[in-house]
Amino acid sequence: MMIDVNATAAQRLRRALDDVASGYVAVITGAGISLASGIPTFRGTDPDAVWAKDVTELGTLEYFVAEPVNSWRWYLDRFIHTLDKQPNAAHAALVQLERQHVANGGEFLLVTQNVDPLHERAGAQQYVKVHGSADRVRCVGRGCIHAAPAGSLDLSAAGVEQFLAAPSFASLPRCPECGELLRPHVLWFDEFYGEHEDFQWPRVLDCTRRADLCLFVGTSFAVGVTRMFVEAVLRRHVVALSIDPGVDETPHRHILALPEKAEVLLPDVVAMAANVP
Fold first, then answer.
1. Domains, the chain, ranges and CATH?
2. 50 exposure class (CB count in 10 Å sphere: 0-12, 13-18, 19+)
3. pLDDT band for position 221 (cuts 50, 70, 90)
4. Is the Cα torsion angle 242, 275, 105, 99 positive or negative in sign?
5. Tell me, what's the pLDDT at 233?
6. Is 131 annotated as catalytic?
7. Given this model, what pLDDT does residue 249 score?
8. How far apart are CA 224 and CA 239, in angstroms?
9. Which of 91, 101, 119, 131 is catalytic?
């Protein structure tokens, strides 16, 4: 992609998308896209960033097994608030972008690292929540229909209200099928992407092999899935752009930095396509 130094960030992104109008567009989102919805980032520099306050060792299966009460308290304290939030303009614009691209005969996949429910609430259709979902839980019992590799339950079935009212081993969320402990349906730091079918890891791997354009939105490039997409970009010479306000240069010189707020830039990009005769 030739870069017009006089073009705006919206014009650069619009041109990149138009160049692969009938190709495969991959969008990889991180916590930064949900900041405008009131959800703090994780490794970002904002004062409420989750991992600025907690060591990542707490977000592990090992910690859950050793300290299930404290693990659930820690998890709910940091993630249950995401369920009260609503999508912002960036989430809505990505839905429109998906519709536009698919209508043109292209293929589209949104891979989000976020466990919040905002992409699906906005109306996304082709998406993967590769780190799980805060509105679901699953059983730890072997062979249970609500356990890995395919089972899960809506959070409403976990009885977390009773646990929050009086946290104790006796009030821990339990599986309605087998009585074993329930756990958050998320990917802990000491787990692997392929451990549950909901994470759709084969689909993500296929996307890295075939995508014609990668758009990173609000990600710090600090976790495995983003590193994998970056490696694919470099290996396959795929066009790649990153939307991140205040970041004028990405960690990888082959990824074009667009230092804008996603909730401002993405609606502008969508409107450009909508205004084409």
1. 10-39+88-131+193-277 (3.40.50.1220), 46-84+135-186 (3.30.1600.10)
2. middle
3. confident
4. positive
5. 94
6. yes
7. 79
8. 20
9. 131
